[in-house]
TrEMBL record:
Heterodimer of an alpha and a beta chain. Keywords: Metal-binding, Oxidoreductase, Plastid, Potassium, Pyruvate, Thiamine pyrophosphate. Residues 4-179 form the Transketolase-like pyrimidine-binding domain. SMART domains: Transket_pyr. Transmembrane segments: none annotated. It comes from Pyropia pulchra. This is Pyruvate dehydrogenase E1 component subunit beta. The pyruvate dehydrogenase complex catalyzes the overall conversion of pyruvate to acetyl-CoA and CO(2). It contains multiple copies of three enzymatic components: pyruvate dehydrogenase (E1), dihydrolipoamide acetyltransferase (E2) and lipoamide dehydrogenase (E3). InterPro entries: THDP-binding (IPR029061), Transketo_C/PFOR_II (IPR009014), Transketolase-like_Pyr-bd (IPR005475), Transketolase_C (IPR033248). It catalyses: N(6)-[(R)-lipoyl]-L-lysyl-[protein] + pyruvate + H(+) = N(6)-[(R)-S(8)-acetyldihydrolipoyl]-L-lysyl-[protein] + CO2. Its cofactor is thiamine diphosphate. It comes from the Eukaryota. The keyword Lyase does not apply.
Length: 331
């Protein structure tokens, strides 16, 4: 076991897959000589050359389209968005090409493509650099969507994403790159379609992902001290949602709290509520509650920015309220 930062875990996954498979390449702004905006590709250009770690102009639509074409013709490109917000400029390519071509070609083309990079609400990065795009991409048929949350799952998930023959949008949170964790030195892979039970419990199911996993963990000591026993599930796979794992938990706890950084309107939480109500309505002792970011552009002001994102104290209060209200309903 070795203790490494999350950006190093992502770099190691990329390095190992590039060494193993000559078709794997990296494309994006400043991924080469600069080493990536968060050092995920640091020094890889000196090992693999400037054509396998290709610095591009500031033209997201163009180089994403180029990567899709490269995937169709046999390469396995990794597109880094310097900030995932910039990939809105490539939305047409991701939607109309990456998501559709395997289907519209009748299966004649595969698209082994990873689109990865930093996203989420950082620290005073401004509205344009603090967007949460997971709900934007969730509506696109043909994509897989993954949100890593720890160095361990970041490495195992990225290696699996690179080997997958479908386009994978891989979300990394800008504030988790310096998170440290011990991970195995031997190779391992993690499934792209499975949630992780972070903590088993019997009182309530807390569904979360990305940075909010850590806010939930911060809330746990207080909840445990006060006698509550929550089960915590990191979704990891945002598309498809692992409804099987969610179902097992809900049938045990009968109560659900969703904690996300996504916007409340049409966010990941909204889709979760729809599926839980569709498949598990009779298992619920209380309505599903979601804690989501406010539906406003993220403020630059630090205090206002913090107020838009869910905090551990809100998670604690919500767990208590749901359990108390469910007892009142059932009695």
């Amino acid at each position: 076991m070795s203790k490494i930062f999350m950006f190093d875990a992502l770099r190691a996954a990329t390095d190992e897959e590039m060494e193993k498979d000559l078709t794997v390449c990296v494309i994006g702004e400043d991924v080469g000589h600069y080493g990536g905006s968060y050092k995920v590709t640091k020094d890889l250009h000196s090992k693999y050359g400037d054509l396998r770690v290709l610095d591009t102009p500031i033209a997201e639509n163009s180089f994403t389209g180029m990567a899709i074409g490269a995937a169709i013709t046999g390469l396995r490109p990794i597109v880094e968005g310097m900030n995932m917000s910039f990939l809105l400029l490539a939305f047409n390519q991701i939607s109309n090409n990456a998501g559709m071509l395997r289907y519209t070609s009748g299966g004649n083309f595969t698209l082994p493509l990873v689109i990865r990079g930093p996203g989420g609400v950082g620290r005073q990065l401004g509205a344009e650099h603090s967007q949460r795009l997971e709900a934007y991409f969730q509506a696109i048929p043909g994509l897989k969507i993954v949100a890593c949350s720890t160095p361990y799952n970041a490495k195992g998930l990225l290696k699996s994403a690179i080997r997958d023959n479908n386009p994978v949008v891989f979300f990394e949170h800008v504030l988790l790159y310096n998170l440290q964790e011990e991970i195995p030195e031997e190779e391992y892979l993690l499934p792209l379609n499975k949630a992780e039970v972070v903590r088993s419990g019997k009182d309530i199911t807390i569904l979360t992902y990305s940075r909010m996993r850590h806010h939930v963990i911060q809330a746990l000591p207080t909840l445990l001290k006060e006698g509550y026993d929550p089960e915590v599930i990191d979704l990891i796979s945002l598309k498809p949602l692992d409804i099987d794992s969610i179902s097992v938990s809900v049938r045990k706890t009968h109560k659900v709290l969703i904690v996300e950084e996504c916007m409340k309107t049409a966010g990941i939480g909204a889709e979760l509520i729809a599926q839980i109500n569709e498949y598990l309505f009779d298992e619920l002792d209380a309505p599903v509650v979601r804690l989501s970011s406010q539906d406003i552009p993220t403020p630059y002001n630090g205090s206002l920015e913090q107020a838009t994102v869910i905090q551990p104290s809100q998670i604690i209060d919500s767990v208590k309220n749901i359990i108390i209200s469910s007892k009142a309903i059932t009695t």
